[in-house]
Amino acid sequence: MARARQKNGKDRHQEILEAAARVITERGLADTRIQDIAEQCSVSPGLILYYFESKDRLLVEALTYSNDRYYLAQARDLRRLDSARDQLWRLIDLSVPGLLPDFERLEEWALWIEIWVRALRDPALAKEREVLDRRWRQSIADIVRLGRTTSEFAEGEDADEIGMKLGALIDGLAVQVLMNDTQVGPVHMQRMCQEVAASLIGFELEPATSA
Length: 211
Prior knowledge:
single chain; Arc Repressor Mutant, subunit A
């Protein structure tokens, strides 16, 4: 079935995904109705169910769509940097909630949290989560491999293992920042991630500058 394209250049499928991401971020999945999303993008609830079959399916596709937009923007951003270390620092900065207001990922983080919660009890959703998480860890591992290819980073622990460890740290700390933990703010998270990255990859970290 051909998708109807709107005057703004978006098709209905894309508009529904964007509306779903907004509503789920604002209300949480449990308090989001298909009707709420339909009202956001001026379509019928039946059309949404035609495209996505269920609210869980819509959640996964909304996160995938948000992820795709993030990785496209991230790739463009990182390509401007020649140094693997600079790319790694930039990736960390882009992942810290509230650190870069012009590159905020609150919507995507909110969708991630919903996915993690639902995946605990839904095997099908757990598989979708694994695919998306693997992509995230791979983006870190690729930077490590780049740094070793250019001799900027020394050979050492497997790059995929580093990607898993650093990715898990970033995810865990980001949740604390999102919850406004008084002991974990954006700058603190940024420094902790840099320290662990330097330790895992094996290079000296510049001393922190005092405010």
